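wait is this the right file?? whatever heres the structure
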């Protein structure tokens, strides 16, 4: 497990558009994210989440630099990387915090093209039970289970308004060797208590300044509470949905963390659960899950029917030449992995021959080239511009 933190540089200064107080300047981007209601699709938020999801394939320093241009200058970014090749587990999550700590973004890295472990996990579609709420894709769920004990307390601290930079330093402290027992007495040091890794308001792992007694949510007005967004592309999108489902399921988080979630924006997301999982969580947070699909991207049609009956949940948005457009009919599963993969590869090859009139007109139901995050980022940029919003 590797935890790394980076300060988000102040690259672009956004104009003040309203009254501000010392130490709390008004940032129109952050304010807009704060004003979004649960279940309301926001094109500006979609662009910011598409940017975070696309740049989650980079290192934390690059991620922080890019997100500074999206209004997060002066904030903090943390990456949590987990790799265990023998267990076919390899994933990375990013936590982004605005300068005023009022907006938190959780972004998961997707399938890395050169990672055999990611690919093997993706095709390992054997289902596993999810909190007695149905079954989910095991290759997606196992990485989240392994990452959660470290990710959860960091997320909980950020949602209490605590500095991610300070908290991440404390996170790394727990891996340092310390004298214990008799050795501690000899050296005059006292061993720190071992807190539960779960994001539990009764026993916070990080007892930092700024948290209320017993780790409860700060007694601030609702307008001052941090707003949470979750995002990801490809495998990262599947992890985003599973993370939201876990947050929704764990009752102690549901009490005061869940109301802070404004939306889950996914891009090129595969299906993650069976019909029972879809039925239960569609009622729970389907109205807050916004899935984006670029043209004939093959991944949203996966896993195939040969792997079992999987279903999408949430609202679906398809790409046009200029914007994301809501679609009432959800995409269905591909029939087989081999057939859809070969078709997707052929479509990608034909895209390179689009200048040849005959070849350029051959229709393909699936394409791997369409799955590239650059497609999702480009449409999100056009969609925001088409809506006539302010520049970012």
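ok assuming it is, sequence goes like this
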């Amino acid at each position: 497990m590797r935890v790394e933190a980076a300060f988000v540089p102040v690259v672009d200064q956004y104009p003040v558009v309203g009254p501000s107080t010392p130490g709390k300047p008004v940032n129109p981007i952050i304010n807009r994210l704060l004003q979004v209601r649960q279940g309301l699709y926001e094109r500006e938020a979609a662009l910011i989440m598409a940017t975070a999801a696309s740049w989650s394939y980079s290192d934390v320093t690059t991620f922080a630099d890019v997100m500074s241009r999206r209004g997060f200058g002066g904030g903090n970014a943390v990456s949590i990387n987990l790799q265990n090749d023998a267990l076919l587990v390899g994933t990375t999550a990013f936590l982004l915090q605005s300068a005023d700590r009022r907006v938190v973004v959780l972004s998961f890295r997707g399938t890395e093209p050169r990672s055999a472990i990611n690919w093997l996990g993706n095709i390992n579609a054997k289902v596993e039970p999810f909190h007695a709420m149905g079954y989910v894709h095991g290759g997606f769920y196992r990485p989240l289970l392994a990452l959660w004990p470290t990710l959860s307390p960091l997320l909980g601290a950020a949602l209490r308004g605590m500095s991610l930079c300070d908290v991440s330093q404390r996170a790394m402290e727990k891996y340092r060797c310390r004298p214990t027992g008799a050795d501690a007495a000899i050296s005059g040091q006292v061993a720190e208590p071992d807190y539960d890794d779960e994001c539990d308001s009764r026993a916070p792992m990080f007892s930092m300044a700024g948290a209320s007694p017993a780790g409860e949510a700060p007694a601030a007005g609702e307008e001052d509470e941090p707003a949470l967004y979750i995002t990801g592309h490809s495998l990262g999108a599947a992890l985003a949905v599973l993370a939201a489902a876990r947050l929704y399921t764990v009752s102690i988080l549901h009490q005061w963390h869940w109301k802070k979630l404004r939306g889950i924006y996914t891009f090129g997301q595969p299906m993650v659960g069976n019909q029972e999982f879809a039925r239960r969580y569609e009622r729970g947070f389907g109205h807050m899950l916004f899935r984006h699909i670029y043209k004939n991207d093959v991944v949203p049609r996966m896993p195939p029917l040969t792997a079992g009956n999987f279903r999408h949940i949430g609202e679906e948005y398809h790409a046009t030449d200029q914007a994301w457009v809501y679609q009432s009919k959800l995409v269905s599963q591909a029939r087989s992995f081999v057939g859809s993969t070969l078709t997707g590869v052929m479509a990608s090859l034909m895209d390179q021959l689009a200048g040849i009139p005959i070849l350029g007109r051959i229709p393909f139901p699936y394409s791997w080239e369409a799955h590239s995050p650059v497609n999702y980022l480009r449409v999100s940029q056009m969609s925001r511009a088409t809506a006539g919003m302010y520049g970012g």
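Residues 2-176+191-386 form a domain with the Rossmann fold fold (CATH 3.40.50.1820). so i think its the right one actually
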